[in-house]
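Aim 2 progress update. The chain analyzed this quarter is reproduced below.
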Amino acid sequence: MTTVTPSTRFVMGNDLAELRRMTQWVQESAGAAGIAPEVVRILDHCANEAVVNIISYAYEDAKRHDIVLELNKTAHGAGLVIRDDGKPFNMLEAPEHRPAENLAGAQIGGLGIHLIRRMAARCDYRREGGFNVLSLEAQPNPQHCNA
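Predicted structure tokens:
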């Protein structure tokens, strides 16, 4: 990701009630940076999918954990970096979602990673100093996530 503006940082707790505040931050920060509305929608959707997964599955205790998001305007759209101190998890290594053959075989859940992969133009994961670091880039009309 080629960053062309300084990042904007947001810290939230691992609580689903914080999602509304996160969405407001994404929309306001991206708007202030002049990021296209289509790109803002992609980033907001990806952020919600990723952070819900973090809150739901990353922690083995009930303590507060900080989830840190950084937003950058890039040459082709915008980048979002999400850091958490949960269990190591690389969503890029998760198996591809397979749609059910019929309604009876459909299961609830499992689409968040699939949607991120389809909406983001670029995805990258690394484990750094005890943190999961997920980097996403959104662009108008992305093809698919290229890890």
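Residues 2 and 75 are 6 Å apart (CA to CA). Residues 37-57 form the longest helix (21 residues). These observations will guide the mutagenesis experiments scheduled for the next reporting period.
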